[in-house]
Specification:
single chain; 9-stranded parallel beta sheet; alpha/beta; metal ion binding; hydroxymethylglutaryl-CoA lyase activity; binds 3-hydroxy-3-methylglutaryl-coenzyme A; HMGL; lyase; 313 residues; TIM Barrel; metal-binding; two-stranded antiparallel ribbon; binds magnesium ion
Length: 313
């Protein structure tokens, strides 16, 4: 397959020279599939993503297997990919999850908090503050082992049960995660309701609360088609870490209104046009998403995958 019609490169002013794509397809994508994807296929997916030039690939979650059966094979999967020369973060909700991840040599973990009470309950069976208390020893122990710690924050813009989420409420939980010792935060628009002005307002409020932009990544779901516009708004603010999922896979089993993440291919297309380096081979990445779409039995929702793959989808 050959990629045709690459965008003309026309840089825009005051954007970062390089963006780190934090690939979440193997975790955020596959956790939401009705059918469990075989471990072998997941391992091949991650190998292909690395081969396409992605350097941070979230591999799986060490959560309760009954809560997310799709990722119950974390112990089998992780050793099959751990030798890859890329960063392989994994989700860890509690000390039990941390023990499992550390036993396999994971050196990058992510805890995942919520800006709202409703989602903390649905996703973690805890109040918001109970969830933060659960993460505290996880972050402390992970840091003591020199592991890199990401703190996700879900429902940063809107929540399916509570509606719009006030910016100060989000800032409070971000501050708590930073004070706990997280190295970076990922601001999750779990149900895709953010718009660009809202994104910039939250980033500014976080800066004012002492959280510098270089500690912040963005995690947009594309439910309302806003993910790329929101990403551009974040780049204009100086953000250089953007979460995306190959082929636009994704969602969250505990938030019914969550659909796919920003597709990595769509992101790479825009960044390429802006002259921003990502190190990703778009041709190989599209081939990987087409391959995965075949395995899942449905076409990729990514517009770039559809436009550039010659295969009928
Ligand atoms: P719980 O039922 O309250 O668990 O679940 P518990 O603490 O009461 O423990 C009950 C039993 O589970 C115990 O076993 C534990 O050992 C065991 P027992 O002593 O009864 O035999 N257990 C575990 N076993 C294996 N691994 C573990 C583990 N933890 C406890 N880690 C819990 C609480 C947090 C575990 C559960 O709610 C859970 O696993 N939740 C995960 C939900 C999840 O993965 N959601 C999707 C990821 S978040 C997301 O997608 C959003 C994001 O993409 C950003 C965005 O878009 O917003 C990141
Ligand atoms: Mg997500």
């Amino acid at each position: 397959m050959t990629v045709q019609g690459l965008p003309m490169v026309v840089p825009a002013e005051e954007l970062p020279a390089r963006v780190r794509i934090y690939e979440v397809g193997a975790r955020d994508g596959l956790q939401n599939e009705k059918a469990t994807v075989p471990t072998e296929t997941k391992a091949e997916f991650i190998h292909r993503l690395a081969d396409a030039g992605l350097t941070t690939i979230e591999a799986t979650s060490f959560v309760h297997p009954k809560w997310v059966p799709q990722l119950a094979d974390a112990e089998e999967l992780f050793p099959r990919v751990s030798e890859l020369p890329v960063a392989l973060p994994v989700l860890v909700p509690n000390e039990r999850g941390l023990d499992r991840a550390l036993a396999l040599g994971a050196d990058r973990i992510a805890v995942f908090a919520s800006a709202t009470e409703s989602f903390a309950k649905a996703n973690l069976n805890r109040t918001l503050d109970e969830a933060l208390a659960m993460f505290e020893p996880v972050v402390e122990r992970a840091k003591a082992q020199n592991a890199h710690v990401r703190g996700y924050l879900s429902m940063c813009f809107g929540d399916p049960w509570e509606g719009p989420v006030p910016v100060p409420q989000v800032v409070r939980v971000c501050r708590a995660l930073m004070d706990m010792g997280c190295d970076e935060l990922s601001l999750g628009d779990t149900i895709g309701v953010a718009t660009p002005g809202h994104v910039q307002a939250l980033l500014l409020a976080l800066n004012e609360a002492g959280v510098p932009t270089h500690n912040l990544g963005v995690h947009f779901h594309d439910t309302y088609g806003q993910a790329l516009a929101n990403t551009l708004a974040a780049l204009q603010h100086g953000v250089t870490t953007v979460d995306a999922s190959a082929g636009g896979l994704g969602g969250c089993p505990f938030a019914k209104s969550a659909t796919g993440n920003l597709a990595t291919e769509d992101l790479v297309w825009m960044l390429r046009g802006l002259g921003i380096d990502t190190g990703v081979d778009l041709d190989r990445l599209i081939a990987t998403s087409v391959w995965m779409a075949d395995r899942l039995g449905r076409p990729s929702p990514s517009r770039t995958v559809r436009a550039l793959s010659h295969k009928e989808q």
